[in-house]
Amino acid sequence: FTGQLGDAEQVRELLDSLPPRARAVLVLRYFHDLDDAQIAADLDIRVGTVRSIVSRTLNTLRTRQDAGPPRPISQTKGGAS
What we know:
Structural class: mainly alpha
Distance between the termini: 41 Å
Helix content: 55-70%
Number of helices: 4
Radius of gyration: 13 Å
């Protein structure tokens, strides 16, 4: 049970470190099980933007998974919205 609590805390910290839109996309996809089209409609963004956000954010989280405590991911400028 302690391992589960630690995992939940780590997920919460990682989500808290994300920019709001990236956090929303991941929560809608992985916690609410929405598809890309539903997420795009809910957030008023393009389906391609949803996919891009998921890809970039998961890649960033993977690269820093073992790097210690989470730190905020800087938001990128530009790109399709």
